[in-house]
UniProtKB/TrEMBL annotation:
<dbReference type="GO" id="GO:0016020">
    <property type="term" value="C:membrane"/>
</dbReference>
<dbReference type="GO" id="GO:0005737">
    <property type="term" value="C:cytoplasm"/>
</dbReference>
<dbReference type="GO" id="GO:0016757">
    <property type="term" value="F:glycosyltransferase activity"/>
</dbReference>
<keyword id="KW-1133">Transmembrane helix</keyword>
<keyword id="KW-0472">Membrane</keyword>
<keyword id="KW-0808">Transferase</keyword>
<keyword id="KW-0328">Glycosyltransferase</keyword>
<feature type="transmembrane region" description="Helical">
    <location>
        <begin position="41"/>
        <end position="58"/>
    </location>
</feature>
<protein>
    <recommendedName>
        <fullName>Glycosyltransferase family 92 protein</fullName>
        <ecNumber>2.4.1.-</ecNumber>
    </recommendedName>
</protein>
<dbReference type="InterPro" id="IPR008166">
    <property type="entry name" value="Glyco_transf_92"/>
</dbReference>
<keyword id="KW-0812">Transmembrane</keyword>
<comment type="similarity">
    <text>Belongs to the glycosyltransferase 92 family.</text>
</comment>
<dbReference type="Pfam" id="PF01697">
    <property type="entry name" value="Glyco_transf_92"/>
</dbReference>
Length: 485
């Protein structure tokens, strides 16, 4: 037999010897099986441990739960901050514009100015970034502007509440699901007009409801909101004259939403922006929607009223909420002009004292059609002949509005007392409206296009000439700086 074989067929002595060997074989065989079982069990435990590691480190960062609030450094935020004036909202047909702290309406803290498709409104939730971490979600209330003029898309306010466990809120986004959502692709809006320090949080609330009698100091007394420039608008001369007229009247800031301006006007806008009078907001609405050139869907078509005019006016109100005592809402070819005072401040001090509960002051519009006056040799017109646009100082004929038809007015508002506006009227406010008599203030409207003139209602009105000695040098200076003279 071969050595080491534990088999039968041998003598007694040999059997005895091999019996001992057989015992040794059985013992060692049993020991080998035990080691193999222990090794397999150990490898099984290692495999389970590795699987748990993979699950917790690979899958968890991709899913963020909002209820309960996410935990740990994996939930730091914001991820992608939008630096655009128009931000598409993921998984919807809507667009977000800007977010503001607004605690004037009970039960809400945040107002998001938006553009919503009216036939596709769905349930949405606010998610906040609080001190760098995600909050729990809160439901939203959607308030579509009632003046949508039949267009599919409309200016919309989205209102929501900040969760109680959210401190130092900085950004917000909207979700279509309350939990287990993917947030890594969400674009976040910075919250404007928010409290700037913990000490301030203890003592005041920004954008809170007031009675309009506060003695707060503002950066500007008056801000003018110019809704949208589009269609390569290039009326440089009228633009410069209007801005300088407003400067003399006491306006400290003019906010302009620019979709497309002509090359010369863009140069002038840059000059005014560098100086600080103009704040430019790029408004590429045509890259997202088919904006209408008109105000009525049934007549003009398109997706959105007048290049989003209502959206920009409402955004401008909230943009100016904390920094401007009054806001003027009008177009670039309009000037709200005091007729009994030399500036807007003295006029508004009088009106506010007489009407302390007024949140909005309605100004009657008067068209100044294209009428020339005789040009003297000392006029600056020869210098302006190469400048695109027309000279509003030549508009000296005023048409009284026809009382038998609707005559749209424009407005001076206290922004802290206004919640939502349309073009010619405030839709929601915390005060009253007052119609300003035309002998106190009128709106000088100098339209670019021809108007239907009513000869029986025309009057000579040279109010603009009262400012020409100061306006003309300022216009020349700004045109020179812009390389247009």
């Amino acid at each position: 037999m071969m050595p080491g074989k534990c088999i039968g067929g041998m003598d007694l002595e040999t059997m005895s010897t091999h019996s001992k060997r057989l015992g040794i074989c059985l013992v060692f065989g049993s020991m080998n099986k035990t080691k193999q079982l222990k090794l397999k069990f150990f490898l099984f435990i290692i495999a389970i441990f590795i699987y748990i590691i993979i699950i917790t480190t690979v899958r968890t960062p991709r899913t963020y739960r909002s209820i309960p609030p996410p935990r740990g450094a994996l939930d730091t935020c914001p991820f992608q901050i939008s630096n655009q004036s128009i931000t598409p909202l993921e998984n919807t047909k809507h667009f977000l514009v800007s977010a503001y702290m607004d605690q004037r309406v009970k039960g809400y803290d945040i107002r998001i100015i938006s553009i919503f498709r009216r036939d596709s409104i769905q349930t949405l939730y606010c998610l906040f970034c609080c001190a760098g971490h995600l909050s729990s979600t809160t439901p939203v209330t959607v308030s579509v502007n009632s003046d949508h003029f039949g267009f599919p898309f409309s200016a919309t306010d989205v209102m929501c509440q900040i969760p109680t466990n959210c401190n130092a809120v900085s950004h917000v986004t909207l979700l279509t699901q309350p939990d287990s959502v993917e947030v890594s692709n969400q674009r976040w809006l910075p919250i404007k007009n928010k409290k700037i320090s913990r000490e301030e949080e203890k003592t005041s609330i920004r954008n809170k409801k007031t009675d309009g009698k506060e003695k707060k100091t503002f950066q500007f007394d008056f801000t003018v909101c110019i809704s949208t420039l589009f269609g390569e608008y290039n009326n440089v001369l009228q633009f410069a004259q209007t801005l300088e007229m407003y400067r003399l009247l006491g306006v400290g800031r003019v906010v302009i939403y620019n979709t497309s301006a002509g090359p010369e006007l863009n140069r002038l806008l840059k000059t005014y922006s560098e100086e600080g009078l103009v704040e430019m907001v790029e408004w590429p609405i045509h890259k997202h929607l088919n904006p209408s050139n008109g105000w009525l869907f049934s007549k003009h078509g398109g997706d959105l009223h007048y290049y989003g005019q209502l959206v920009t006016l409402n955004d401008c109100i909230y943009r100016s909420m904390d920094r401007s005592r009054y806001v003027l809402l009008n177009d670039i070819d309009e000037i709200i002009m005091p007729y009994q005072h030399d500036n807007l401040k003295s006029m508004m001090d009088m009106l506010q004292q007489q009407h302390p509960d007024a949140a909005m002051f309605h100004i009657e519009s008067h068209v100044f059609p294209y009428k020339f006056f005789t040009k003297g040799k000392d006029t600056p017109l020869p210098r302006w002949r190469g400048v695109p646009g027309f000279n509003i100082l030549e508009r000296i004929v005023r048409e009284d509005p026809d009382k038998n038809i609707f005559n749209p007015r424009k407005m001076i508002i206290q922004p802290r007392l206004v919640e939502q506006t349309s073009v010619h009227d405030v839709l929601k406010m915390f005060g009253r409206k007052y119609k300003v008599p035309m002998d106190v203030c009128r709106m000088i409207h100098c339209p670019t296009g021809p108007q239907n003139e009513r000869l029986f209602s025309q009057h000579k009105d040279t109010r603009l000439w009262d400012f020409k000695d100061k306006v003309i040098p300022r216009v020349n200076e700004m045109l020179r700086r812009g390389g247009l003279l």
